[in-house]
DNA sequence: CTACTTGCAAACTTTTTGCTTGCGA
DNA sequence: TCGCAAGCAAAAAGTTTGCAAGTAG
């Protein structure tokens, strides 16, 4: 993710009256510089070198705030813990059922589904979510 | 859900060598007769009148088996606990962001998304999942 | 300076596990 | 009768909370 996007995020935080701390900055830039959709535990372990004293609560607190400010999205799959994604463009995920890898892909044309849902249920539709499940190319090779 | 479908489910269980018990039957028919996509806790409370001594572990055990035999699906939304759905037809859900109600809706035409995902990521696609979020008609009325 | 943040530990929630007793076929 | 299933409680695992101490602005 570009440095420019991180600057934008920092402005949003400042605008919301949020104080910047080294931990907060590290969590944010870690999320914005990875494509791996990490769990809280993965963030915790990854930043443990830089901040040995950082607690998981700090990560949870910050992620919740980032979510409220629409800087990150929380992904909940069947597995036990949530994953987080700082890519806020409209995109979707393909999840490997063998190794758990998550890859992004882009697709447009799902707004029709929202319309259909609205018509058939009477809901005022706000958003949608979709994922594709399968086996990634690496796992297909290993028989 | 029709009694016929319950009979089919019972045959599948019998065929898999699964022994029938009153609790198991109650959990299964409860799921097959509701459209509410209940959580474990809701099932537990609903059947508590009939089986005061039933433990949550029994519900978890049975649901896991039902899932393995493809009799129910587990739904994981952002909220804390899983929900379960015995409607195995291909269908989707609209979730109300205010009251949490989940309604079914039907739509065909998402197989193209699977193809697109496969082409762009190299995954061997197996399934997909999608949900629409919004506000249900009841919650729209209450200002 | 002072209110927001962090770190820590305890609490809570959901789900899983181990083991004994019970009961369906 | 025999082995799968239920009940129970303890343990995991993930997340939230309360409070004292630290620090950004």
Structure summary:
The first copy, chain A, is of the alpha+beta class.
Describe it.
2 copies of one chain form a homodimer. Chain A has 143 residues and is of the alpha+beta class. Chain A starts with a helix and ends with a helix. Chain A is built from 6 helices and 5 strands; from the N terminus they run ααααββββαβα. The first copy, chain A, is 43% helix and 19% strand. In chain A, helix 2 (22-32) crosses helix 4 (56-68). Chain A has 2 domains: 3-85, Winged helix-like DNA-binding domain superfamily/Winged helix DNA-binding domain (Arc Repressor Mutant, subunit A), CATH 1.10.10.10; 92-142, Ferric-uptake regulator, C-terminal dimerisarion domain (Dna Ligase, domain 1, 2-Layer Sandwich). In chain A, the strands form 2 sheets. A 3-stranded mixed β-sheet of chain A has the order 4-3-5. A two-stranded antiparallel ribbon of chain A has the order 1-2. Chain A has helices at residues 3-15, 22-32, 40-47, 56-68, 111-121, 137-141; strands at 73-75, 83-85, 92-96, 102-105, 124-135. The A-B interface holds A 74, 76-78, 92, 94, 96-97, 103, 105-107, 109-110, 112-114, 116-118, 120-137, 140 and B 74, 76-78, 92, 94, 96-97, 103, 105-107, 109-110, 112-114, 116-118, 120-137, 140. Strand 5 (124-135) of chain A pairs antiparallel with strand 5 of chain B. Chain A binds a DNA duplex (25 and 25 nucleotides) through residues 17-21, 23-24, 39-41, 53-58, 60-62, 80-82.
